[in-house]
Each structure stands twice: as C-alpha cells, then as structure tokens.
Amino acid sequence: MKISIQNISKRYNKEKYALKDFSLTMETGILGLLGPNGAGKTTAIKILMNIFGATAGRAEVLGIDSSRLRGRLLSPIGYVSENQELPDWMRVDTFLAYLRPFYPAWDRGLEPGRQYRRFRHRRDIRT
Predict the structure, then answer these.
(1) What pLDDT score does 85 carry?
(2) In terms of domains, do 18 and 30 share one?
(3) Within 13 A of 58's CA, how many CA atoms are on the CB side?
(4) Are 76 and 20 within one domain?
C-alpha cells in the first residue's frame, strides 16, 4: 500500500497544532507510528482516512488524495479506530446500514438475526 504524506499540518486554533509539517512516504509493508501521547499519530492516520481534514499539506493513500476517500474508495483499506464504541443513540441495525456502503461485497445474510430468520422454517432446525 502506498502512503504519501507531504508537509501536513492540523491546526485547531492559533496556538494549538495537533500535527505540524509532517512528511512520510511508504511504498509497501505495514505502518506503525510510535511516539508519546499528543505527538499527532492518531491525527495523521485520521487525515489519511479522511476523517479529519489537514490544515495544510497533502496526503495520498493508494495514489488517491486522502481528502477524496469515501465510500467504495475505502474498501481496500483496513483501519481499526482506537475506540470502537457504538454511539448510545445508534441501534445495531442503524450502525450496519451506515457501514454497508463502505463494503461493496457486504453479505447481509451474515448480519445478526438474519441467519436465524433464514433457517427457522427448515424442518431440521428446532427453535
């Protein structure tokens, strides 16, 4: 996976930078960012995934400007956020509906409850 970051910065106000003038190029392999809390590791990844926009600079993933990543363009990328929590207001079916467009090969038959509904009328399965 090619990743290219050129002088990206993320500024929250006049004095606070989460990331300042960061550059990195990687052609293949597995990427791990190491550093102390507040160094900008998560911010850099979120800019690459188009979760945050950069204040300055440019980032590319797989040759695509990261600011254009959405929907089907995200399907070849594996990303696990540091906090995997379902928002309190969101039901599981709503969350699954949100996720489906990101995965063109999504198999709705594997969703919770659907397997049970699919088989409950078969004679060889007792409910």
Answers:
(1) 73
(2) yes
(3) 5
(4) yes
